[in-house]
Design goal:
Blueprint: H1 2-6, H2 10-13, H3 20-34, H4 38-55
Helix pairs in contact: 3-4
Length: about 55
């Protein structure tokens, strides 16, 4: 999972619309809170931070 998240480039993040970004943040939050694997939870949290910093 980390490889998938680390492979996301800025160009790909720009493809996420303003309406989609909050939904993506919610889904990543659910993964961060409830995924059975620690690595998935950590990766989801890191991606939420990356997206959040770009939205700010």
């Amino acid at each position: 999972m980390e490889e998938m998240l680390d492979g996301v480039t800025d160009a790909r993040l720009k493809l996420v619309s303003g309406d989609e970004a909050p939904a993506l943040m919610i889904l990543l939050g659910v993964l961060e809170d409830h995924a059975p694997d620690e690595e998935i939870r950590r990766s989801a949290g890191e991606m939420r931070l990356r997206i959040g910093s770009r939205l700010a």
